[in-house]
Amino acid sequence: MYACCSTVTLEQDLNKKMHIWMLQTIAFALTSLVLSWAESIEYYGEICDNACPCEEKDSILTVSCENRGIISLFEISPPRFPVYHLLLSGNLLNRLYPNQFVNYTGASILHLGSNDIQDIETGAFHGLRGLRRLHLNNNKLELLRDDTFLGLESLEYLQVDYNYISVIEPNAFSKLHLLQVLILNDNLLSSLPNNLFRFVPLTHLDLRGNRLKLLPYVGLLQHMDKVVELQLEENPWNCSCELIALKDWLDSISYSALVGDVVCETPFRLHGRDLDEVSKQELCPRRLISDYEMRPQTPLSTTGYFHTTPASVNSVATSSSAVYKSPLKPPKGTRQPNKTRVRPTSRLPSKDLGYSNYGPSIAYQTKSPVPLECPTACTCNLQISDLGLNVNCQERKIESISELQPKPYNPKKMYLTENYIALVRRADFVDATGLDLLHLGNNRISVIQDRAFGDLTNLRRLYLNGNRIERLSPELFYGLQSLQYLFLQYNVIREIEAGTFESVPNLQLLFLNNNLLRSLPGNIFSGLSLYRLSLRSNHFSYLPVSGVLDQLKSLLQIDLHENPWDCTCDVVGMKLWLEQLNTGVLVDQVICESPKKFAQSDMRAVRAELLCPDYSDIVVSTPTPSPGQLPARTTPSSSTVR
């Protein structure tokens, strides 16, 4: 009996000790978790508590303070991190006061879209010396003063669409010497001051949906010689003698730079006509045409691409976006149905109505000719020219395209930017065969099922920028035989499989900048007539001429900047190929990173015999363009290609 009791007591002691050990283990784990959380809060700063979730990725901290009911910036504090994106869209800010951002020196992207901002006081942006992207879309700004953007000397991207801006003072952008993307669509601008862009190297400009009737050459267009993308739709253009200068200027720039149409609003005899199709004699029938002609220097150089540091662009690109955006093609904003704007008459609207709301689009219709079925989470407007819908589902927290119910009837343009879409399914676009533009930029897309775009045989523009795509394969673009513009910048693309672009024979523009590419497969551009190619900010050390560069026979622009070029024997062929390009085709320099003796030197400035003593055996040819190519270029003689 004693032995039995002794055994029971021993088991009880063991159980008690085991219980205590388990409690101690749990307590230790909880303590470690709390300490880890506390260290994180201490490390990132008080702003990164439950009110504003923070996420660190690729040495950049994203601080998400959207839709938090923030009335004043005094409610938050600056993050403790070297470089961060601060997202403050969808709050209740109504005015920006001097020095409110003075301690936010690490901000590289700042989102202030969809607030209630009516005024920006002088000095409001002091302290933001490293800011590269600023989003002020969907606010109530009426004026941009000369001092509005003081302190933003590093700014490259400015988005102020969907405000009430009627006046821009002449020096509003004069200090923004790095500004390349300017988005001003859907404001109330009836004119632009002289020399507004004199010191601004703009490459992308969006002026859609304003009240512009004229754009003079002297003092305005003459300073826009770097523009590679321009949007002028939905303005009440006065097609008279004074518009001859704009017509001449548009004819002088790259034909692909103008996106959309410039449609005459007045006089009545030219109403609804595309400026490109109207002769100078029709514009100015009773006066001497030569008095109004503009004769710019030709060719105008178009030597820029929009570039920023890689961003998880809850940007771009943005709260109203199309890019960075571009970006990258620049983003387009969400048209606000409650904002009454005077638009060009809807009697014969332009071919691309963008984001206009129901009212102006069908103001003179008694009955809609097609069903206006629109997903409940989106806004739609009728594109009368081909009885299709423009569907705007931007920034609606959509996680799956299948959520869009009811499905829109005959969509022509779909904007799904700034959502939470991670997967594109094969069934998502089966009923959208007439789609012309699809914008999926700035989502979380990491998987696109094979042939997901297989039914989009009429699609011309596809935006997949700012996602999490890692690999491109031929099945990805199956069915896109009409595609002309493909935007893939700001992803994490590491691999492009051979034959990936065989399904897009009409591709003209390809943006692959800001990815993780180290090489390209042979014959990747075979059969294409690319006019613009951006490989900027990848991990290329060299590119072969044979099978890659020699297939780029129609180039108007190529961007190879910000790659770790290894300036040894391998790049000699590439160097010689670059040297034979026409002036203006190469955007920016091609800077050597290694070996050390050539670091920070432009590859073209280093003699071939220094790169490689045996360079004399290497001969490279610049491909001869097709006879109808614009602009024409010379054909150097050559033989073998490295």
UniProtKB/TrEMBL annotation:
GO terms for cellular component: membrane. The keyword Transmembrane applies. Coiled coil: none annotated. The keyword Transmembrane helix applies. Gene3D superfamilies: Ribonuclease Inhibitor. Residues 235-285, 563-613 form the LRRCT domain. GO terms for biological process: axonogenesis; positive regulation of synapse assembly. It is a single-pass type I membrane protein. Residues 322-350, 622-642 are annotated as: Disordered. InterPro entries: Cys-rich_flank_reg_C, Leu-rich_rpt, Leu-rich_rpt_typical-subtyp, LRR_dom_sf. Keywords: Leucine-rich repeat, Membrane, Repeat, Signal, Transmembrane, Transmembrane helix. SUPFAM superfamilies: L domain-like (SSF52058). Residues 632-642 have a biased composition (Polar residues). It is found in: Membrane. Belongs to the SLITRK family. This is SLIK5 protein.
